Amino acid sequence: MHSDTINSVLVVGGGTAGWLTAAKLAKSFNSLDGNSIQVCLIESPDIPTIGVGEGTWPTMRATLASLGIDEAEFLRTCHGTFKQGTKFINWQNASRPNQYHHLFTSIFDPTQFNLAPYWLQGDAGDLPYAQAVSAQARIAELGLAPKKITSKAYEGIQNYAYHLDAGKFAELLKSHAIDKLGVKFIAANVTDVSLDAEGYIEAVVTDTWGTVAADFFVDCSGFRSLLLGEALGVGFTSIADTLLTDHAVTIQVPYPDAAGPINACTHSTAQEAGWIWDIGLSNRRGVGYVYSSRHQSHEDAERTLRDYIGDAAAGLTARKLKIDLGYRNKFWHKNCVAIGLSAAFVEPLEASAIFLIEAAGNMLVDQLPSRRQGLIHAEKKFNASFHFRWQKTVDFIKMHYLLSGRSEAFWLDNREASSIPASLAQTLASWQQQVVSAYDFPHVYEPFPMESYQYVLYGMGFKPEQVNWQRYPLHAEAMAQFEKVQQVTEYLIKELPQQRDLLDRIYQYGFSTI
Amino acid sequence: MSTLVALDSQKHQSLKLTTDKSFAHAKTRHLLPVAVHEFAMAATHLPIVFVKDGDTGQFRACALTGLKPEQNLFWKDGGWLGAYVPESLRHYPLVALKVSEGGDSFAICIDEASPLVGRETGEALFDGANASEFLNRRSEAAVAWAQKNLITQSFIQRLIELKLLQSQSLSIRLNSGAPYELTGCYVIDEAALNRLDDQAFIGLKHGGYLAPIYAALLSLNQVQSLVRLAQ
């Protein structure tokens, strides 16, 4: 029944993962042409989409542009705002107020001339690292946008990502994928999965649409992992002994003033047994507490979140969910690949979820073979690549906890030697002697760039103890660059509009495509 | 712009308007809006460029009258130098604004802060409660100008759709001072125009867009006139 060629792809499950992947595939395959590879998506009509606020990485701009989505339309329909990084509050310790920024833009490229060793030697004076190397810390603090109304669509004066309403985002992708890119849509529940003699998926059986066959399957069914986990029996590796959070409680907070300012970066505030995210959409804030139920009761966790929100939390509904951190032992098996929660989940500390969906979609688009014999090799490459990316993502998130000096039980347990991946321990040890450099990031598909590590390490107060500082004698050059950063910062503060002001203008005028 | 208010026969009954042939209000403006109808006239005197409005990000067609912000090389020694006066200058301080998006009716607004507006000298705007003949004439002209602007907007929209606009910084090299780049200008991409398929090109012809397109292209030679004036 199966042809040797791969002519059809069936995506099981909607949401951000399903619709983003289906849209990418259809766009890349040119599925509007009936002779090309066809893409179909099955989504359950019974599972409601939940509009949580989520953060992306700057990669989302290229993704949306390549799909042919208008940036102004995206911002309007998804209550989107511009995200210029993350502000980490009270991560260093709980005894006195502290904060640092993990940003997307530096003024100078650190692989050309690395300012970090000079900052560590005090050449930037008292300035925090992020402010010394980037204009974006102050821009974000002032609630300014990364671009102007005269900027081209998807182009920024400063690098930026988005905050978006994931429910609305899935709706936008859905209508775009169906209307503009030629994705076929079936609203039905998958009740069974049928495999052929070699263990490849042949078809899925649905409650209202009969049997739907395809040559290749993408599992976007969420935590359940209907195809890869349940039907193909690929196991799950928990990382609960490395990252200790296991629950989240979320609340949507309306703005007291609908025309008031909007945060220009994600706020992440450390708490007794986890941390709280605070994401400013255009119409409300999305706030949630990711915590370890072994270190704090659910009741106390909800109270912690309500205390953080303050009086505005009165009368608002909290939603609790259990999260299982970990990943599948394989992401691609035979003719099925899992993307999104069905593949892996880590706590949303560095907004890796959507970013890794995009990355998986990109690799699938490029690597899906034309013929069935090619699957085995593609599977190997894909699994190696994404094991690497998830492992690095886990290490990077864990690093935030390792660098903290907080002393509650949750934080002490996070620094227990047995909970630290060997790869991370080795890297951090090497950074005691050697400042972070491009040689630490040899992989093309490194999920987090060198600059991200610098912002977090030096923001958290990591001090290399065994560096021979005489190796970094270019103090005058470094000071000139630090000075330049301050000049650019002052200039940009005058140039850039308030985030809310720019959004209002975008709703009215849109962005030019040139 | 903040002093722009709709004319009101009660409130503005005793106002008078003087006419200033020197167009002093343009003294510090290096960009003056031009309508597509006047491209051919303007092109032999002034470079026509497309710039994004700082408030809306929307493109406007403008005559370039200076080589840096706040500089108008065509305004010197108390008067307008050029042989061609862009129409936009002649309507000041009156502006016709659309009453509602998509509607056809316009409201006549006035810049109350303009030195041309007073109570002593000039021509009366109102004759009792009614608009004076002078005001009627000026209002009609202002509405006609607003309509030309709308046509100019559709012209620009078509250029954008056909990807015929490209960003181009103008290299300015004066005898005195270092060379610099005047940024933020967009011009018609001649190569892209020549690559258009026949159907799109004929579409431009039917829209009456070819003459202004070539006028705008040729007008760029006038950057040299600006440089001469600046020396």
Secondary-structure topology with pairs:
The complex is a heterodimer of chains A (514) and B (231).
Chain A: E1 8-12, H1 15-29, E2 38-43, E3 53-55, H2 59-67, H3 71-77, E4 81-83, E5 85-89, E6 99-103, H4 116-120, H5 129-133, H6 136-141, E7 161-165, H7 166-179, E8 184-187, E9 190-195, E10 201-206, E11 211-213, E12 216-219, H8 226-231, E13 236-238, E14 247-254, E15 266-271, E16 274-280, E17 284-291, H9 298-309, E18 319-322, E19 326-328, E20 332-333, E21 336-338, E22 344-345, H10 352-367, H11 375-402, H12 409-414, H13 422-430, H14 450-459, H15 475-495, H16 499-509
Parallel strand pairs in A: 1-2, 1-12, 2-8, 5-15, 12-21
Antiparallel strand pairs in A: 3-7, 4-7, 5-6, 9-10, 10-11, 13-19, 14-17, 14-18, 15-16, 16-17, 19-22, 20-21
Chain B: E1 4-6, E2 16-17, E3 31-33, H1 39-43, E4 48-52, E5 59-64, E6 75-76, E7 79-80, H2 87-91, E8 94-98, E9 106-111, E10 117-118, E11 123-124, E12 126-127, E13 130-131, H3 133-161, E14 165-167, E15 170-172, E16 180-182, E17 185-188, H4 190-195, H5 198-206, H6 210-219, H7 223-230
Antiparallel strand pairs in B: 1-9, 2-10, 2-11, 3-5, 4-5, 4-17, 6-7, 8-9, 12-13, 14-17, 15-16
